[in-house]
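pinning this so it doesn't scroll away 📌
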Amino acid sequence: MGGSESSHGGRKVSFGLDEREQVRVLQGIRLSEDVVNRMKESPQSKRDNQRSPRASDGTAPPSPATEGKPKSPTGIKSAHHLHSVCLWHSHRYEREQALVQEELLRLAKREREAASEALNTALQRERNNTNEERQRAAQLVSNKKLQYVSIQD
């Protein structure tokens, strides 16, 4: 498994991808029970829980599929299930990262266009000011010539 290591707060943490480079593997990270429980839930079971009716005490009623089946003493799902959940989360993360990158590119393009437009406006304003100053200077020279000629007469 290719990966790298980091030292965070005196702890040694290693991370990388599995042999098929599909799942990120972290070692040395402590997860809360809440995080572990969420990782154990499949995306399908989350959708089912969101749609299922609640009992008066706020808990979901047992589903027909789970009634009569003994619950696992440890509550741990199979490694395959955890693998697929991690894979699903990894793909979701990658999709979200791609969307963020696309949005950043759009924003950068808009900023470049706005900056270019502001620069063009400023350049045009400067050209106009330069032309006006040139015309004023020419008018002053012309006026001075007329004054000189009138003095000479």
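📌 and the second one:
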Amino acid sequence: VNQVANLTLVSSACDMVSTAYASAKDSHPYVRSVCDAAEAGVKSVTEATASCVQPVLTTLEPHVAAASEYASKGLDKLGETLPLLQKPVDQIISDTKELVSSRVADAKDAVSS
């Protein structure tokens, strides 16, 4: 999970979502109260679940470690194959706009000629 979260694409997307959430939360007192209530609910459910799941996780720890190692190797390989994962969302959007604009211009030139 940490390895996925540290991918530039994922971390920049999380930052964008976090900024949008904070902005929405600050936009109106009613939105803030609903968000605060939802956050409190998620926090209490998470705490309750964590205490119940801990004994199971302890038992499954060797299997989780093996799966984690396998997933880590897969993510490393995916990162090599898809360099896009190492770019921030803003750059991907900018590159995509540039590519689409270039293709539209090429198509426009082809049609007009």
